């Protein structure tokens, strides 16, 4: 997905002379063609995330559209004040491309796990937050970024994930329905969408119909789609590779609460805890209850009754003691 995204930056740059690329210590070989063809629109800075946001803001003030790329934890945590003030406050068309959203960098441990990146970015006024589900959807989404007037945070998966987005057009702020709403409707984003499709197949074997709504844009959220799914389902199940606080599930609850709807909602995601284990993205997602089998089991239990929806403790996590 990262390669697809960056290749699209190059393609956009061919079409629009306002497009510039700013990278932060990404190593050799990144966008070499763009570097040689457009040296005045390619910048590779060092490990200086605060600086590159200020640099991108300056370029945006001069009429450019900067696409800024580095690891997701670095582009959201390390330079948060600069993103909030330089990009958010001034409402500039800066595109922040975060490599490895969620548990992608599981082999590197908690410092590199972007488990709260969407929460951080969703809290910034004017910021758009997008998490495409596969490389094909990423290609279609990138075409939308040229004319969006405000900053965008683009959350990237690992790449090589199954193509499940079904070729549907991508519009910022408009969800795509992959399976018609049923007894259960999953609302998901990013690579978790594929797991929801698999979970829906498992539920079908139990006689439970399950819809799947691909919410590639977490902010602005497609409130109309959420309310439509709520009206047609017994329960909504949000699934995200992100902590439950201020993520997709929280956004869905906000929409329902503001509309005065009492629809039942089960939120599945990462616990409020830093990881104290290492592994692969798939192994950690399975350990944390985000394998299709576990998603299907929890959804079926929730459909039967709210007393069976307690979030289980996940192994390999650091539990913080508190008062």
Q: Compute the gyration radius: what is it?
A: 19 Å
Shape: globular
Treating each run of at least 4 consecutive H or I residues as one helix, how many helices?
12
Kindly report the oligomeric state of this protein.
Answer: single chain
How would you explain this protein's 3D organization?
The chain is of the alpha/beta class. It folds into 2 domains: 2-155, Rossmann fold (3-Layer(aba) Sandwich); 176-305, Rossmann fold, CATH 3.40.50.920. It contains 12 helices and 12 strands. The strands form 2 sheets. The protein has a 7-stranded mixed β-sheet, with helices on both faces. A 5-stranded mixed β-sheet has the order 7-9-8-11-12, with helices on both faces. α2 (32-37) links the parallel β1 and β2. α3 packs parallel to α5 (80-89). The protein starts with a helix and ends in a 19-residue tail after the last helix. Residues 308-323 have low confidence and may be disordered.
Give a quick precis of the structure.
This protein is an alpha/beta fold and 323 residues long. The chain is 37% helix and 19% strand. The chain has helices spanning 2-15, 32-37, 49-61, 72-78, 80-89, 117-122, 135-142, 192-204, 223-232, 248-258, 281-287, 292-304; strands at 19-24, 42-45, 65-71, 95-99, 128-130, 152-155, 176-179, 184-188, 210-214, 217-219, 235-243, 264-270.
């Amino acid at each position: 997905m990262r390669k697809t995204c960056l290749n699209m930056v190059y393609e956009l740059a061919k079409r629009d002379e306002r497009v510039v690329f700013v990278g932060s210590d990404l190593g050799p070989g990144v966008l070499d063609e763009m570097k040689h063809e457009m040296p005045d629109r390619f910048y590779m800075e060092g490990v200086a995330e605060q600086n590159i946001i200020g640099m991108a803001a300056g370029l945006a003030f001069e009429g450019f559209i900067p696409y800024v790329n580095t690891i997701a934890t670095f582009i959201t945590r390390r330079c948060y004040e600069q993103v909030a003030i330089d990009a958010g406050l001034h409402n500039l068309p800066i595109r922040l491309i975060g490599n490895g959203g969620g548990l992608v960098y599981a082999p590197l441990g908690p410092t590199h796990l972007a488990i709260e990146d969407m929460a951080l970015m969703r809290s910034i006024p004017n910021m758009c937050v997008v998490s495409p589900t596969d490389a094909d959807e990423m290609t279609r989404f990138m075409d939308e970024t040229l004319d969006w007037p405000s900053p965008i945070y683009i959350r990237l998966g690992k790449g090589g994930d199954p193509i499940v987005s079904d070729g549907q057009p991508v519009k910022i702020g408009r969800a795509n329905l992959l399976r018609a709403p049923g007894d259960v409707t999953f609302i998901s984003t990013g690579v978790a969408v594929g797991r929801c499709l698999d979970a829906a197949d498992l539920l079908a074997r139990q006689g439970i119909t399950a819809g799947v709504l691909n919410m590639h844009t977490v902010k602005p959220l497609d409130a109309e789609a959420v309310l439509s799914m709520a009206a047609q389902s017994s329960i909504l199940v949000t699934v995200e590779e992100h902590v439950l606080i201020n993520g997709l599930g929280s956004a869905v609850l906000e929409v329902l609460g503001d509309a005065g709807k009492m629809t039942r909602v089960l939120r599945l995601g990462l616990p409020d805890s830093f990881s104290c284990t290492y592994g692969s993205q798939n192994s950690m997602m399975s350990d944390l209850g985000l394998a299709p089998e576990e998603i299907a089991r929890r959804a079926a239990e929730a459909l039967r009754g709210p007393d069976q929806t307690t979030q289980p403790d996940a192994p390999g996590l650091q539990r913080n003691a508190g008062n």
